[in-house]
Predict the structure of Riboflavin biosynthesis pyrimidine reductase.
Amino acid sequence: MDRPRIICHMHMSLDGKIVGDYLPTEIGMASQREFHALAWGPDRYYRDHKGWLSGRISSEDNFTHYRKPELDDAAPPVPEGDHIAVPDAPMHYFSVDPSGSLAWTQNSIDYFDTRAHVVEILSGRAGNAYKAFLRAQGISYLIAGDDSLDLEKTVTKIGEIYGVEELILGGGGGLNWSFIRAGLCDELSIVLTPAADGAKAAQSLFEADERYSSPVPTGFTLDGTRVLDDGSVWLRYTVDGPIT
Ligand SMILES: NC(=O)c1ccc[n+]([C@@H]2O[C@H](COP(=O)([O-])OP(=O)(O)OC[C@H]3O[C@@H](n4cnc5c(N)ncnc54)[C@H](OP(=O)(O)O)[C@@H]3O)[C@@H](O)[C@H]2O)c1
């Protein structure tokens, strides 16, 4: 089976930031609700996916809050391979965490009114104790790659195991750019909120990280624009790839 079509769906401020003080404002929240509705609402535009991929820092910032997992180094060996704890969840949060470091305390996350089952995306670096920690909480995991995460294998596995032809790439900027650079992002969908906060250090839509990706001029073709009910602008692009 080919990999699913990958859509990077992101909420962004007018100054190109994906996190910051503009988010919890009235304008920021109204825009986030529109953003959520497009990919997760009952009448959503993106209908053929069963979840979204997020980077390790996004999971720490929003869900696990930089706690350390309490691991049992004496845990009995877990069976080899992937672990599907909940086979029929309607929605999944695919948490990219190659070394196995996130301190989950439950097997689902809530995002507005969407509940998603947590699926950790691990590499061969994740140890037995961490996998046992996930199993004990009913958290699923997929293993893709040995020393480092194999992004193509990750998305192909997700397509095969969950039977989906569409997958949402949900940030943050570091993970987004790795997918763009790997040629694994087909569409960019941005909800541009009519707000900004001017913060310098906040992450932007794309962030090259020398451990994983490099900066390079990249082109996009505009496929659609729509003004949403709250005044946000929804922009859709095809990802064309490197340009000179
Ligand atoms: N506005 C929105 O729509 C939106 C959506 C999602 C997230 N966000 C925000 O984005 C912020 C985080 O963005 P971020 O760019 O700092 O981090 P990120 O993309 O969430 O996570 C990056 C981390 O993921 C891990 N990773 C593993 N393989 C990777 C690969 N091939 N390429 C890139 N990363 C890989 C690395 O963890 P290790 O360091 O452990 O190796 C890396 O440091 C958060 O504040 C979050 O709230 C906003």
In short: The domain at 1-48+165-244 is CATH 3.40.430.10 (Dihydrofolate Reductase, subunit A). The chain has two domains: 1-48+165-244, 51-157. The CA atoms of residues 72 and 114 lie 32 Å apart. The chain has a mean pLDDT of 98.
